[in-house]
Each structure stands twice: as structure tokens, then as C-alpha cells.
From TrEMBL:
SUPFAM superfamilies noted in UniProt: Nucleotidylyl transferase
Catalyzed reaction equations: tRNA(Trp) + L-tryptophan + ATP = L-tryptophyl-tRNA(Trp) + AMP + diphosphate + H(+)
Cytoplasm is among the record's keywords: no
Species the sequence originates in: freshwater metagenome
GO CC terms in record: cytosol; mitochondrion
Protein name in UniProt: tryptophan--tRNA ligase
A biological process term (GO) from this entry: tryptophanyl-tRNA aminoacylation
EC number(s) per entry: 6.1.1.2
């Protein structure tokens, strides 16, 4: 059975881009593959975090993933820092990744431009991400389009390690959806919708009040030519709405454009589709967030399951690299 692995950072609120670009596909994959999903708290500290907030976000994000539909009885759901093999392998991979490769990462350039204190961890972030993936003999990694470059680097590092030290890692493939792979900010549709966006009007968080979700979509930036068609380069706002509508109704953005003669109707239908997607998630989240003890119990089981796979893979990598067994 194929192994699927993916991760999400416990920073800020989960937004529509995270849902349509990544998490939605995790829900499907858990029934079709041996799926492992990780709340990557070690990645979250590459930028300064408040300790109480990190604790709270880690718990809330886990509850949100379960509210969306991840079932800890079906998949493996755990917190990265609970499984020490991640930091153990990360160092071996930092020493198999070149400075030049890390310097070319566009996420590093974007994030380091926006902060005064650029940690060494922000720079080596992709090596930790490669460790996350390679520790589970992963075949497929479902992520949004923004992670494509990190996935390419992971593949290069796996191939290099295998060539230097003998066959050790499975070389993974990225799985990026057709619709929803890059959900853009509703007000600045040339930027991706992001947890760190400065415009609350441009971002739809999954726990936003449903009335305000509708308003944000009705006020989304479009253009003046009035034609409803999917054309990302010249019509970024309209294309973003089509991509969202398509993802919420299981169609391609091109198919979602059929039959619309004006923006008002498109916005109305997109708003309705998003509201109907969010309503059940919000209801389940309200139930799950009442029982943090149960969430912690499920995470402990998830960490034990994850270690059973990660432990032998790290031991294999250490042995191939020439470390004495202890
Ligand atoms: P930040 O804004 O802090 O970079 P983020 O919103 O990108 O965070 P992550 O935890 O880094 O969130 O990403 C979780 C998953 O969501 C990843 O697979 C990522 O590719 C996907 N994702 C994030 N933003 C979008 C987006 N706007 N459209 C589609 N997928 C997205
Ligand atoms: N870098 C990713 C989060 C992430 C991840 C992973 C995704 C960390 N480790 C492993 C897939 C597989 C991000 O910023 N979205």
C-alpha cells in the first residue's frame, strides 16, 4: 500500500487555502493509502512563537484537522516534536543539503524579507521538512503548489543520500491538486492566501463567522472587463473565484466557469459553496474543542504509531552513514 505523508504548521488560523490546497485531499487519501499527517510544531518555531500560543495552536490545529475529517483510527495523526527521530534525521540531511540549494528556496526569501530576526532554523527549514517525509518511506506528499520547490529539494537530497551511502530512502512524489492548489488573497489576488497575510478581508479562516465569509467573497477584487473565464495571468481575481468554486464543487476551474455571464452570480454561488463547505466543519470543531484531554490522548497514540515507522528508518540512515551503533 502506498504511503502518504504531509504536514501543517500550528501558526495562525487554518484558512481556505490550507483546506482546498492540502487538507481536503488528506481526508480522501486516508482511506486509500497508509497515511501519516503531522502537526509540524518544530517548523513553527523557525519564526518566533509565544509559548502559550504555540501550545494552544498545536491543540486547536489537531482538533481542526479532525473536524475537517481526519480520523485518528484510520490515519496516523501526531505532533512532530513528540517523535525525536525528526530532529535526529534532520541533522544528517542538513549535512547532505548544500548552502546553495537552501539559498535558492523562495519561501526562505519571502519569509526572511518580512522579519528582522532571521533564524538559522528558517534557513535549514527544508532539511527538517525532508526528514519529515523521508522518515516514513513516503511515496506521495499532498501539498499546495507553494511547496513544490521544497518537494523537489527533498527528492534531490534523497537521491544524493542514496548515491553516497547506498539505497536508504524512498524518493517521494509531490501530489498537487488541479483546483485549489493555489488559493489567492481575495483582495490582492496576485498573492497567495496566507496565515501571515496583512489583510483580514483577503483571507477566509475556517472559523470565520459565515456571514462575514459571504461578505468577503461578495467584495472580492475582480476586474472591469466583465467576462467570466479562467485566465490566471490576465484575470487573477475571477480565476481565483473559479478555482475556489471548482474545488468546493469537485470541478475544474474551467468547468466551473460554464454558464456565468456576470461576476455577481459567480460570487453568489462561490460564497454559497464555501459556506456549505465550512458549516459542518465549524459544528464538529465546536464539539471537539470541548475535550482537550481526548485530543491529547489521541496524539499520544499517533506518536507511538509514527515512531514504529520512523525509528527503523532513522537507524537505517545512521548505519549507512557510518555511525557506530550504541
Ligand atoms: P504561512 O502563511 O505561514 O506560510 P501557510 O498558510 O502557507 O502558512 P502551512 O502550514 O505552511 O500554511 O501549509 C499547510 C498546507 O497548506 C501546505 O500543503 C500548503 O501548500 C497549503 N497551502 C498554504 N497556503 C495555500 C494557498 N493559499 N493555496 C493552496 N494551498 C495552500
Ligand atoms: N513546509 C510545509 C509544512 C511541512 C510539510 C512537511 C508539508 C513541514 N513538513 C512535510 C509536507 C510534508 C509548509 O510550509 N506548508
Amino acid at each position: 500500500m502506498a504511503r502518504v505523508f504531509s504536514g501543517i504548521q500550528p501558526t495562525g488560523e487554518v484558512h481556505l487555502g490550507n483546506l482546498l490546497g492540502a487538507i481536503r485531499n488528506w481526508i480522501v487519501d486516508q482511506h486509500e493509502a497508509d497515511s501519516v499527517y503531522c502537526v509540524v510544531d518544530l517548523h513553527a518555531i523557525t519564526q518566533q512563537q509565544d509559548p502559550a500560543e504555540l501550545r494552544n495552536s498545536t491543540l486547536r490545529l489537531t482538533q481542526m484537522l479532525m473536524a475537517i475529517g481526519l480520523d485518528p483510527d484510520v490515519c496516523t495523526l501526531f505532533v512532530q516534536s513528540h517523535v525525536h527521530e525528526h530532529t535526529g534525521l534532520s541533522w544528517l540531511l542538513e549535512c547532505t543539503t548544500s548552502f546553495g540549494e537552501l539559498r535558492r528556496m523562495t519561501q526562505f526569501k519571502d519569509k526572511s524579507d518580512k522579519t528582522d530576526f532571521v533564524s538559522a532554523g528558517l534557513f535549514t527549514y527544508p532539511s527538517l521538512m525532508a526528514a519529515d517525509i523521508l522518515l516514513y518511506d513516503t511515496n506521495r506528499v499532498p501539498v499546495g503548489d507553494d511547496q513544490r520547490q521544497h518537494l523537489e529539494l527533498t527528492r534531490d537530497v534523497a537521491v544524493r543520500f542514496n548515491a553516497r551511502y547506498g539505497n536508504t530512502f524512498v524518493v517521494p512524489e509531490a501530489a498537487i491538486p488541479r483546483a485549489g492548489a493555489r488559493v489567492m488573497d481575495l483582495q490582492t489576488p496576485t498573492n497567495k492566501m496566507s496565515k501571515s497575510s496583512l489583510s483580514p478581508q483577503g483571507t477566509i479562516n475556517l472559523l470565520d463567522d459565515l456571514k462575514s465569509v459571504e461578505k468577503k467573497i461578495m467584495r472580492a477584487m475582480t476586474d472591469t472587463d466583465g467576462d467570466v473565464r479562467y485566465d490566471v495571468a490576465s484575470k487573477p481575481g475571477v480565476s481565483n473565484l473559479l478555482s475556489i468554486l471548482g474545488a468546493c464543487t469537485d470541478r475544474t476551474p474551467e468547468d466551473a466557469a460554464e454558464g456565468y455571464a456576470q461576476y455577481g452570480a459567480l460570487k453568489k454561488d462561490t460564497a454559497a459553496a464555501v459556506v456549505e463547505t465550512l458549516r459542518p466543519i465549524q459544528a464538529r470543531f465546536a464539539e471537539l474543542s470541548n475535550d482537550p484531554g481526548e485530543t491529547a490522548r489521541l496524539l499520544a497514540i499517533g506518536a507511538t504509531k509514527a515512531r514504529e515507522v520512523a525509528g527503523p528508518v532513522l537507524a537505517r540512515a545512521r548505519e549507512h552513514m557510518g555511525f557506530l551503533t550504541s
